[in-house]
Amino acid sequence: MDGPVRGILMACIFFKFIISASPCPPRCQCDTNQMVSCAGSNQTVIPGDLQNSTRFLYLERNNIELIRENTFSSLHHLEELVLAQNKLYEIESGAFTGLSNLDKLFLEENSITILPPGIFAPLVRLTELHLGGNRFPVIPRNLFGSMPSLERLFVEGNQVNLTIESEAFDGLGNLMELSLRSSRIQRLSHGMFSGLLNLARLDLSLNTFGSFTTDVRKDLQHLKGKRDSHTELTTLAEGTFADLKSLVDLNMSSCSLKAINRNIFKGLTSLKQLYLSVNQLRGIDEGTFCESLNLVLLELDGNPLENLEAGSFRCLYRLGYLNLNHTEFNRIGEGFFKELNELAVISLSSSGIVEIAGDAFQNKSRLTRIDLNDNGIKSFNTSLFDGTRNIRTLRLQNNQIKSLPEDIFNGVSGPLNLSLKGNPLVCDCQLDWIPGWLVRNGGTLDRCECDQPPALHGIHLDRVPYDDFHCTPYIVNDLPHIYNATPGDKRFEIVCPVSGKPPPTITWTVPNGETMSKKTVPEYPNGLYRVRENDTLVIRDISSAVEGEFTCEARNNLGHISVQIEVQVVQISNSWMTAFLVVMIVLFVSCAICLLVTFLAPWRRRRRRRELTRTPARRVDPRYGPLSPIAEGNETDEL
């Protein structure tokens, strides 16, 4: 073995010897990274024989009750200290002296009741502090005032009612996240959050606030995140979130909110995510979100939104995700989502919806997913998805859908993942288009099963052979059942609004009781009716004789159906005809006069020129003006 290799080997052995010779506290584990772990080792006091070079000290899950002054005074290199899940009830003043390099401190799930003033003053480089699960009755003013580096503060799950004094967090100018979740906070006092100019997240969930004061969040100019879930607030006053110009994340889920002031979000111009789930909101006033034009996510699930208005979502031009699951507004009316042109995902499951307006999802070119599971929907308008070409997922499970219109996805381009499981599907000719359409467009269909007819019950829709999609004649609702005609109309057509598979045979019954079909009356045998090859009934001339009820009967080997169609002949009244004739006469006379004047004008101009040519030129006497021809002839005599 050559010299250099031998030297390296000896150095490694020597280093290992030095490390192994370093003392490690009893029942603890130590490693070469200056980490000491005494977790769950039944320690009752802080080990006293810790090396000064220790960087990480883990003492969680022990029975330590007290931290005395200067306990860590020699651990100048300590970066992380974990004392969670002990029996700590007191921390003496000066306990953290010497921890000038500490980065993270965990004191959660103990029984600490009081923190001495200035207890955290030595922790000038601390960035993360956990105090949750203790028994603090109060957080006094300026408790954290000397921690300029603190970025994350967690006071979660406090075991007793907690009062936070005004300016308790004053001086934490670099704090990015503050969590007071489940801390039994009874009220928010004015100035409580003053000085938190860089706060990124504020979590007030699982508290029992009685009310919010108007100025509770004054001075939070640069707040970027906040979560207020599970707080028992029946309402929020105007100005609660005033001045939060940089707020981007606000969560007030499960707050028992019954109403929201329409100006509650005033000033939240940077808000992007808003959580209002599981409250008692019955409606949202029009324009409530007009101060938050940058909102991209809105969750309202779990609210009885029975009074939701069409203008409730006004101004949400950039909203991309909308959650309305487990609501009770039952019907999606016209214009509900009119302004949500950037919407990408909308969830409407378990909302008791039975009716959806035809324009609900129209012209949403960015919409990719719609969840409508577990509702009472029976049918859809064929124009529902017009302009929604990029939809990729449509979930319609557990509704009352029996069939889908064949043209409903005409505006959809690209693959579609369609879910129809749990619907009473009637696998007849009205559904025979779905498997083929999905194959052509590269989509998928879930394992939905046919409910009817009995021969196909329990068979997956995509496994039914095309030739087995039969159906009895059925009414096509898009075709009219009432026709208006005027006397004199020629070749007036009436269409039987029925279809079926196999194609049914159509028989017409006219008002005088005659029956006819394309086989029996191909032309006009009586001079009035004929039936075309496509079963359309043609009336040769419209008169009062054809007014009344027509019946078309459709029949195939599976059944038959009859539809009544009414033809109404609209008569033109005599008074209307008289007025029409008067107007026409006036127009005729006016036109004749105009033509006469037009033709006579040149003749009158020629006649005038001839008269001027024959008349002698007049002379002008300066004394008397123009002289007539007679006066001119007598002028010499007078002289």
Automatic annotation (TrEMBL):
Establish whether keyword Cell membrane is in the entry: no
Give the signal peptide as a residue range, or say none if absent: 1-20
Where in or outside the cell is it found? Membrane
One MF term from GO for this chain? Answer: signaling receptor activity
**What Gene3D superfamilies does the annotation carry?**
Immunoglobulins, Ribonuclease Inhibitor
InterPro entries per the UniProt record, alphabetical: Cys-rich_flank_reg_C, Ig-like_dom, Ig-like_dom_sf, Ig-like_fold, Ig_I-set, Ig_sub, Ig_sub2, Leu-rich_rpt
| Highest taxon of the lineage | Eukaryota
Kindly give the PANTHER family that the UniProt entry links to this protein: ANTIGEN BSP, PUTATIVE-RELATED, LEUCINE-RICH REPEAT-CONTAINING PROTEIN 15-LIKE
Task: Provide the protein name.
Answer: Ig-like domain-containing protein
Origin organism is Strongylocentrotus purpuratus (Purple sea urchin)
- Native organism taxonomy: Eukaryota, Metazoa, Echinodermata, Eleutherozoa, Echinozoa
